[in-house]
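Would you mind writing out the residues of a protein together with its fold in token form for me to study?
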Amino acid sequence: MTNVLQVVWGLHIGGAETFLYNVLSKLDAKEYHIDFVIQDPKITNKKLYKLCKKNKWKIYKVPPFNKNLFAYVKAMRMILQKPYDVVHIHMNALINIIPVLLAYRNSKKVIIHSHNSSNNLGGKIGRVVHLINRKILNPMKISNVACSDLAGKWMFGTQEYLLLENAIDIDEYKFSEEKKNKVRKEYGIGAQILIGHVGRFVEAKNHKYILRIFESYVHKNDAAVLMLVGDGPLKDSMVELAENLNISDKVIFVGEQQDTKDYYSAFDCLLFPSLYEGLPFTLVEAQSSGLPVVASDNVTKEIDLTGNIQFLSLSARMDDWISALDTMIGPVQREKCAEIMKQTKYNIESTVVAVKRLYSVQ
């Protein structure tokens, strides 16, 4: 039995949590015991929570390190007294390296997993802390993992890292006319153009720009509808912005969904003007559904696996974004894209094999 501790901010509907569910649900619970330590006590990822309960995996809740550092360190020390074989730490930046330092003393293997290509936490000071902590960790024997080359270079600099792709069960996301009709009927959408976005309402996802692009788009396509799937701290302000832009009657705020796969079938195009990303699960899922995508060029180009993504600079003219949407919304043979995706490294089976190798401590 290999004992693994997952260190993650919380059990939310996010990239790290999606990765964990996709992989851990494929591992044999007789071979791997997985515990979690989280700082945010609010659990919204019901699938991951149910998986933990089913397998009798513990979820330790510790105080946030930025609110009570002493209590956080004390709690982490207590948890790490248990001899874990592997401690897998999921990070967007090297701001809080306390789990790394504590785990390094007590565990056979420590993994740092980079899930993003930048981070706005702490601003300029945070970036300086990130670079200083990188130098502290460089001499240590740690397994570096990243979801993309951009995420790897951001987190580890010139250090070596293992690419561990954000893989999914591709068959679950195949385009379905039945799913398309079901979602559209539920929200009262007929033959209108439906532009979608799936992601948390946080700064990186750039919902403000999504709404402004859509405001311009409806001047040319009055029947178009925008559907935003997700929740987060900026949601209320985006609802207010939609009202101020006089498009609230054409924007559907779906809220957080435990299962998003049916929505991709319903969309005609995915709008994804992120400020920064690692390697977004959303675009792997969207392409498995054959969905055309218009994305910012802050998203890594390696994610274009089907030729159905157009990248634009956020400094491009608004007319260029509108033109890109018009170009991408069209007769794509969506059913064939799942077969293309199955031939890529984003098929979950290959990632599970890589994780098993990574967790080997022999």
User: Anything to note?
Assistant: The mean pLDDT is 93.
